[in-house]
Amino acid sequence: xxPEAWGVLYKAMLxxxxxxxxxxxxxxxxxxxxxxxxxxxxGFDIKLASGTSLAAMVVISLSGAAKHxxxxxxxxxxxxxxxxxxxxFAIVGAWLNKIIPTLWLQRIFAVFLxxxxxxxxxxxxxxxxxxxxxxxxxxxxGPER
Length: 145
Hints:
Elements: H1 3-26, H2 31-42, H3 46-70, H4 76-99, H5 102-125
Helix pairs in contact: 1-2, 1-3, 2-3
């Protein structure tokens, strides 16, 4: 293996580590980590980074979801509903990814990340009267303990 190939592998493994940890710990799509990392660390076009991220997330998501399921922290009805519509709109998104210019995809992605960050910051810092979120509990849809 050439030194350049080792460098690519090393960067890919760093990105994979961040994707796996963030997706299983926080439930965020690893694409929020992987796409910018592949664009800026590896020189990928955002379109290639998006597709590569999704391909990696298949395996990462399955392993994280399986572990969460064994811990009783998966609501299968909700996951099923999200998956059903998500599959359809993933196909639409992949089609749009092909026709929207790269610069606009980068702008859309950046605005999306900023909006999510501002909303999360606001909710955790200023909105203390929000009722607690549904937590994983004995009533979760996971396996019996």
